[in-house]
Write a structure and sequence with these properties.
The protein has about 350 residues and is α+β, with helices and mostly antiparallel strands. It folds into 3 domains: about 160 residues, no CATH class; about 60 residues, SH3 type barrels (Roll), CATH 2.30.30; about 80 residues, Alpha-Beta Plaits, CATH 3.30.70. About 60% of the residues lie in helices and about 15% in strands. The strands form 3 sheets. Strands 6-5-4-3-7 form a 5-stranded antiparallel beta sheet.
Length: about 350
């Protein structure tokens, strides 16, 4: 009687075969549950005691990404232990393949994101660079999921290579239409890895100047001194001569001043020394030279060169203002007059 019941057939499988399938399913699920509740839980407790975050990540990623794959594997083994019809077998293969692809793609993206954020960027103290690199994450997700879908379609029997070959002419047309976008994308990678500037840098591009606000995959945005936002394509920036004033260690300053022709020779010889002393007394400056440069139309011209030991424009202007005040004060004390545009008319009588 028992053997007769076990040998009864339903939908092409005997009762004993159904029981074996259920045993495989129950045993597999029990093994996965034990793995999750005992081993993984203990590993999580152990990982929380360590200083590194890598073990925490690996255990959590196994718990959230790989355990569902194990469930799918158990279900696959249980179902395929039975004799199934072609349609049912095909449907189960499609469902299992889709689930495995889904969880595998999620697992791979999680690992890549962790490597970027906690291994690569953790060593980089530049917060703006971390912000820019995170712009790569959507691109990485698109690539991973695109590869996963292609792999799934190929395993389901679709001739992906034939489809790709058939799209060859259309792909060329799309590539030609999207060459500007692709150019900006590659320029973004050039900016990201070569780092000619970063967010917060003050740059000048042709006739435009301002502070970098955002570096995107296609465009870079600059806040100009007058307040408006200027948007550049990344290709424009990589093809242009960019002057980055934030990277400037010191600023070379050249200015000139003119005194009247009535200034005596003794006073003229004193002026370079006066200016040198004034510049050296101002903080964050390095004096270079001061010379009687030339005879102008209405003045005797002196040229002064010094360095401001800061890239900050406001500091530079404060220093130049202080130097101008002190030169004015010293010249007035010594009776040296600044020149201004004048004409002297000499009339001779015969």
């Amino acid at each position: 009687m028992y053997e007769e019941v076990m040998q009864q057939t339903f939908f092409g499988n005997t009762v004993s075969e159904y029981l074996v399938s259920l045993a495989i399913l129950a045993g597999g699920l029990l093994a996965v549950v034990l793995l999750k509740r005992i081993i993984i839980r203990r590993l999580l407790v152990w990982a929380e005691r360590t200083a590194t975050t890598l073990d925490d990540f690996l255990i959590r990623i196994v718990d959230s990404r790989l355990v569902p794959i194990l469930y799918c594997g158990v279900a696959y083994l249980s179902i395929h232990s039975l004799r199934l019809g072609p349609a049912v077998a095909k449907a189960s293969d499609v469902v299992i393949a889709a689930l495995l692809t889904l969880f595998s793609a999620r697992f791979l993206t999680a690992v890549i994101e962790y490597m970027i954020e906690n291994v690569w960027l953790k060593k980089d103290e530049d917060a703006t660079r971390r912000y820019s690199v995170k712009g790569l994450l959507p691109v990485i997700r698109v690539v991973v999921w695109g590869a996963a879908v292609t792999f799934l379609l190929d395993n389901l029997g679709f001739k992906v290579s034939t489809v790709i070959a058939g799209l060859g002419i259309g792909g060329v047309a799309v590539a030609l239409a999207a060459q500007t976008v692709l150019g900006d994308l590659f320029s973004y990678f050039a900016i990201l890895f070569d780092r000619p500037f970063k967010i917060g840098d003050f740059i000048i591009v042709d006739n435009y100047l301002g502070t970098i606000e955002h570096v995107g995959i296609k465009t870079t945005r600059i806040r100009s001194l007058s307040g408006e936002q200027v948007v550049f394509s990344n290709t424009d920036l990589t093809n242009s001569r960019v002057r980055n004033y934030k990277r400037m260690n010191k600023r070379r300053v050249v200015f000139s001043l003119g005194v009247t022709y009535q200034t005596t020779l003794e006073q003229l010889k004193e002026i370079p020394g006066i200016i040198e002393e004034i510049v050296r007394e101002v903080d964050l400056t390095a004096f270079d030279r001061a010379h009687f440069f030339s005879y102008g139309d209405f003045s005797l011209i002196f040229e002064v060169v010094y360095y401001v030991l800061s890239s900050d424009y406001n500091i530079y202007m404060d220093i130049q203002q202080e130097i101008n005040f002190r030169i004015k004060e010293e010249f007035e004390r010594r009776g040296i007059e600044f020149a201004y545009p004048t004409q002297t008319l000499f009339i001779a009588k015969d």
